[in-house]
Design goal:
The protein is mostly helical and 249 residues long. It contains ten helices and two strands, in the order αααβααβααααα.
Length: 249
């Protein structure tokens, strides 16, 4: 059986390695945040505020130093997003010594594709979900009530939608890992496709700010595509797992 070339590590060695990887990951996010801070003005004007401005919404600050805290929180959020590949790389470096060589190969690929899926989710939320939600917030309600939104509340909403979409788009990679571990199978995912469609429609109804079925389909279709993609990826993962098992025998 193929063994790792790394020396065996004791419990305290693992704790020390984990500590070093956590420090390295936090340092990477901190450096990314510092780098982002040089462009924070453009990020606020051209990225954060753009969906609200295009929807015709008015934003206001209701707190002393509210804008200062807004900029600081946005720097941290952007630093986390930019530094997330470095965090994933440190996670990979921590678990790599305990893996076989064939496991290292597919784990490296997962690390790269996880970043791609997360970025795709962020793009979908920014260019699809948030503009639709902002348009609904602008037009919903009485004409006698003017919608003027606290900018810090807007940032909280913006960050929640962005990060949630990024995590949802990790579904194919999660299914790949579970399939490689034998937890799920393509047959299982195909059998419960109808149940998954119901769950997807419920999620789309919750995420969609309007009762319009067109907008709900706008969110449901990408989620369904992700589910179908997960089935295809799980088939590939099972084939790779079976091939790896046959090579070890």
């Amino acid at each position: 059986m193929e063994q790792s070339s790394e020396r065996e590590m004791g419990f305290l060695d693992h704790l020390d390695e984990l500590r070093r990887r956590i420090i390295s990951g936090v340092a990477g996010v901190l450096i990314a945040s510092i780098a982002v801070s040089f462009f924070i003005g453009d990020i606020v004007e051209h990225i954060l505020l753009r969906p609200a401005i295009e929807a015709g919404l008015r934003l206001q600050n209701l707190r002393p130093f509210g804008q200062a805290f807004l900029y600081f929180k946005l720097i941290v959020i952007c630093g986390f997003i930019v530094g997330s590949p470095w965090v994933l790389w440190n996670l990979w470096r921590f678990v790599a010594p305990g893996l076989y060589e064939h496991e290292r190969r597919w784990a490296r690929q997962i690390t790269a594709w996880t970043s791609v899926c997360f970025a795709a989710g962020i793009a979908f939320a920014y260019f699809g979900m948030i503009p639709s939600m902002m348009a609904f917030a602008k037009n919903f309600g009485s004409a006698q009530i003017e919608n003027i939104i606290d900018v810090n509340e807007y940032l909280g909403f913006f960050a929640t939608v962005i990060l949630a979409a990024g995590l949802i788009f990790e579904l194919p990679m999660v299914m790949y890992v579970l399939a490689r571990m034998g937890v799920v199978t393509p047959t299982f995912l195909s059998t419960y496709r109808r149940h998954a469609i119901v769950v997807i429609l419920i999620i789309a109804a919750v995420l969609t700010p309007t009762p319009d079925p067109i907008n709900q389909l706008f969110f449901a279709v990408p989620l369904y595509v992700l589910y179908e993609l997960s089935i295809v990826i799980s088939k590939f993962a099972v084939k790779r797992r079976n091939a790896a098992s046959s090579q070890q025998q």
